[in-house]
TrEMBL record:
<comment type="function">
    <text>Catalyzes the dehydration of the S-form of NAD(P)HX at the expense of ADP, which is converted to AMP. Together with NAD(P)HX epimerase, which catalyzes the epimerization of the S- and R-forms, the enzyme allows the repair of both epimers of NAD(P)HX, a damaged form of NAD(P)H that is a result of enzymatic or heat-dependent hydration.</text>
</comment>
<keyword id="KW-0067">ATP-binding</keyword>
<comment type="subunit">
    <text>Homotetramer.</text>
</comment>
<comment type="similarity">
    <text>Belongs to the NnrD/CARKD family.</text>
</comment>
<feature type="binding site">
    <location>
        <position position="216"/>
    </location>
    <ligand>
        <name>(6S)-NADPHX</name>
    </ligand>
</feature>
<feature type="binding site">
    <location>
        <begin position="187"/>
        <end position="191"/>
    </location>
    <ligand>
        <name>AMP</name>
    </ligand>
</feature>
<keyword id="KW-0521">NADP</keyword>
<dbReference type="GO" id="GO:0046496">
    <property type="term" value="P:nicotinamide nucleotide metabolic process"/>
</dbReference>
<keyword id="KW-0520">NAD</keyword>
<keyword id="KW-0456">Lyase</keyword>
<dbReference type="GO" id="GO:0110051">
    <property type="term" value="P:metabolite repair"/>
</dbReference>
<feature type="binding site">
    <location>
        <position position="40"/>
    </location>
    <ligand>
        <name>(6S)-NADPHX</name>
    </ligand>
</feature>
<feature type="binding site">
    <location>
        <position position="152"/>
    </location>
    <ligand>
        <name>(6S)-NADPHX</name>
    </ligand>
</feature>
<feature type="domain" description="YjeF C-terminal">
    <location>
        <begin position="5"/>
        <end position="273"/>
    </location>
</feature>
<dbReference type="GO" id="GO:0052856">
    <property type="term" value="F:NAD(P)HX epimerase activity"/>
</dbReference>
<protein>
    <recommendedName>
        <fullName>ADP-dependent (S)-NAD(P)H-hydrate dehydratase</fullName>
        <ecNumber>4.2.1.136</ecNumber>
    </recommendedName>
</protein>
<dbReference type="InterPro" id="IPR017953">
    <property type="entry name" value="Carbohydrate_kinase_pred_CS"/>
</dbReference>
Length: 277
């Protein structure tokens, strides 16, 4: 077991090169947010933008368009019911994040299947929330892409068949990771990141984080970090640590830390922890 700590950030967050533009920092397409779960995709989208992704497009239920723009004029927004728009937005992305607030009805399943059909092997695909649940319940095969799964413990139980009480068995989790051939971020009060060769444990985090939308925020941060930083395993680990370390700072003076508060602190936190010049 290796540990994720502040050193992981310094190894990952590069100083922005002068000669760069928005394309240097990746194009993310996020897919999620049904008519009832708009907040989830707003938080994921905000987290991606505040993490520094160059271009962010969100495909969602049209009910969410105005509220996303009210929070975040930087994001482009389109209707995920339009298959042509969904397909071209996925094709144009370096990184896709799917599942935050997507829901698990027939409409959501159709959206998920379109995305799985469209992604290509070189693209990074982050699968969270409802999308993980549907992969499990609908027995979907994962597409050929560079996949990152971000399950909480119940989602991991659904996907892996490993009961929550048995998830402390690192070797069992690793065996399923090997079958899935993905980076697995197994979220808990001490989140673990499973990669091909290693298992990392987060050293930050607080019960003040136990509030809805916290994982949606992490999914957007993971998207933002992998879009920008070359070493994808380090990028995932750094996002996990940054999310919790910001919460730890805020929890010194707050009983509960809200996801959007973490989001607003990301740019400052990244600046404080970028690589030495
Ligand atoms: N504001 C919003 O729009 C929000 C939308 N959300 C979305 O709602 C959808 C369903 O996700 P949920 O996670 O709520 O529902 P799920 O049905 O996937 O899982 C939650 C269930 O697992 C139980 N549970 C037990 N131990 C747990 C643990 N260690 N971690 C997590 N759950 C544990 C919970 O009590 C609950 O019954 C997702 O698409 C998600 O993105 C949630 O993120 C909440 C906020
Ligand atoms: N007690 C805790 N200590 C540290 N981190 C926590 C704790 N409870 C929840 N978290 C973090 O909050 C997030 C919850 O994710 P998830 O259950 O997917 O939330 P949601 O789907 O509501 O956005 C994870 O990153 C998890 O590590
Ligand atoms: Mg979640």
């Amino acid at each position: 077991m290796k540990y994720i700590n502040q050193a992981t950030l310094k190894q990952t967050i590069r100083v922005r090169p002068d000669n760069s533009f928005k394309g240097t920092y990746g194009h993310i397409t996020l897919v999620g947010g049904n008519a009832n779960f708009g907040g989830a995709i707003i938080m994921a989208t905000m987290a991606a933008v505040y993490s520094g992704a160059g271009l962010v497009t969100t495909l969602t239920d049209p009910a969410n368009k105005t509220s996303i723009h009210a929070q975040l004029p930087e994001a482009m927004v389109a209707d995920y019911h339009n298959v042509d728009t969904l397909t071209s937005s996925v094709q144009g992305a370096d990184v896709i994040v799917i599942g935050c607030g997507l829901g698990t009805d027939a409409e959501a399943l159709a959206v998920l299947k379109t995305v799985f059909k469209t992604v290509t092997p070189e693209q990074l695909l982050i699968i969270d929330g409802s999308a993980i649940t549907m992969v499990a319940t609908e027995h979907l095969s994962l597409p050929d892409a560079r996949i990152i799964l971000t399950p909480h413990q119940i989602e991991w139980q659904r996907l892996s068949g490993i009961k929550l009480a048995d998830q402390s068995d690192v070797a069992r989790n690793q065996t399923v990771r090997d079958q899935l051939n993905a980076i697995v971020v197994l979220k808990s009060h001490r989140t673990q990141v499973y990669t091909k060769d290693d298992v990392y444990e987060n050293t930050a985090g607080t019960p003040a984080q136990a509030t809805g939308g916290m994982g949606d925020t992490l999914a957007g941060m993971v998207g933002g970090f992998v879009a920008q930083f070359a070493n994808k395993e380090n990028a995932v680990a750094a996002a996990v640590y940054a999310h919790s370390a910001i919460a730890d700072q805020l929890a010194q003076n707050q009983y509960v830390v809200l996801p959007h508060q973490i989001i607003h602190h990301i740019p400052q936190f990244m600046k404080q922890n970028e690589a030495d010049k």
